[in-house]
Amino acid sequence: MRNGGERPDGIALARGVVRLLAERDLPSITEVRLKNGRRADVMALARDGEIWIVEVKSSVADYRSDSKWGDYLEFCDRYFFAVPPDFPAELIPAECGLIVADAFGGEIVRHAPAERLSAARRKAVTLRFARMAAARLLAPPPGTPA
């Protein structure tokens, strides 16, 4: 992580989280629509099939204004919050992992406990992840004429 002195916004924090996960061999995608209609900020898939969801919170106000994080737990084995370096870590529930990040990377400060998905749910979430990632690879770059 670099210390640029500026507060990173949610997009910059998500970029840092994606970079951290890539360094740990956890391919990830952002803005993942879940079957319950919620949207996970970042979802990663481990080599062993474990699924991580990371919810990005750019400020205390952002964290306090969003109480729907429990709706994500049924779609992952591990759940993390990612926050900027100056975020008070004690606000994050102990049952969640904690990532401190900026636009350039991050660090896992507290690992999330594993809550294993059922085989059927794992298959459904993994298939959704794969199809979404493949569709994004096939999509034209933003701003490209149709």
Automatic annotation (TrEMBL):
InterPro entries: MmcB-like. It holds the Pfam family MmcB-like. It comes from the Bacteria. This is DNA repair protein MmcB-related protein. It comes from Minwuia thermotolerans.
